Amino acid sequence: MNTLALVVAASAIANIDQRIAVLVDSAVTRSWSHGGLTSLNSYFTVWNLDAAGAAASALTAAIRLEPMRLGRIASPDGVAFVTIEGPTDDPTQAVAREVAEHPFGTPDFTGRQWPLADVRLLAPILATKVVCVGKNYAAHVEEMGGNSGTFDDPVIFMKPNTAIIGPNVPIQLPADANPVHFEGELAVVIGRPCKDVPAARAADNILGYTIANDVSARDQQKKDGQWTRAKGHDTFCPVGPWIVTDLDPSDLAVRTEVNGEVKQDSRTSLMIHGVGEIVEWISHVMTLLPGDLLLTGTPAGVGPIEDGDTVSITIEGLGTLTNPVVRKGK
Predict the structure, then answer these.
(1) Rv2993c-like N-terminal domain location, by residue (predicted)?
(2) Higher per-residue pLDDT: 144 or 252
(3) 45 and 113, same domain (yes or no)
(4) Are 18 and 148 members of one domain?
């Protein structure tokens, strides 16, 4: 790639990132208004996503960001996107550094920072949508009574963004839903607007990875014959504790514990459809926007949770997402 082309690509991405910052800030991080989200979607529809994607890929090939832990916090000074630096197993030694405006692209820092122990971790991103892959581990398909050989293409469904909660926020079980299951999963966080992405270019469009819990009301799932109600309740998509950039997702250990007892113990290498294939499949169906979450499916070992339980999902290289469980009406 010649120098002029690189400059043009860099300029294009700078302009895209600048407009994303303004639109995401106004439409998502501030008000969640219908008009703001409509403007955001209209903007990305007008943009030539193929050209932007090509420029993004060219720039990504030339410039690689250092791995970071990106988070979102509530501090005495308000809500902020941050990078989390230092040993996270000792919050007294870790620091949250405020990122100006948004976490996409190369972050600019405001100069403000807080000890991690003095802030509350929120869901690390505000997604316009959560797209999930079902039946993506053969052993899980079999434990649910299915045949893993029948899914040549990814099976996708969606959860509303209102289901998202952060670490340590209670999962609220509906009073009339039983059983409700945990599902520990690797989640992909989209980093730029993209459409029709080849699997080989998926990484160019990924901001990083985080942990998610695809909480599911099994009785409603069986009764309805489709999964929107069963998986769409408020609090049914815990996400966190942060986003890790530049992580190889191909063979990570995934472990879920309920009240300290291991329930799921698997690896992402056992997924039927890998991350690249998932991004390709979903982006052929719909435009993906910065911050969108793609849940990659759960391994075997799912089971019920009840009032008073604590669910902890640990993924190698990412950390642990923990949420208590309460039942409405109790």
Answers:
(1) 68-124
(2) 252
(3) no
(4) no
| Token duo for residue 23 | 């639109």
- Taking each helix axis from N to C end, the angle separating 3-24 and 34-46, rounded to the nearest 10 degrees, works out to 160
Q: Which two tokens stand for residue 325?
A: 């469980």
Residue 321's domain comprises: 130-327
The reply to whether 279 and 317 lie within a common domain is yes
Please list, residue by residue across 235-262, b when 16 or more beta carbons sit within 10 angstroms of its beta carbon and e when fewer do: bbbbbbbbbbbebebeebebbbbbeeee
The 10s digit of each residue's pLDDT in 21-54 is 433 333 333 333 333 443 444 444 444 455 555 5
Residue burial 22-59, b: 16+ Cβ < 10 Å; e: rest: ebbeebbbeeeeeebbeebbebbeebebeebbebbbbb
Cα 259 to Cα 257: distance, rounded to the nearest angstrom: 6
The helix, strand and coil proportions of the chain, stated in percent and rounded to the nearest 5, come to 30, 35, 35
Task: Measure the CA dihedral 293/152/184/96, to 10°.
Answer: -30
Model confidence pLDDT, tens digit, residues 99-146: 998 899 888 999 999 999 999 999 999 999 999 999 999 988 888 777
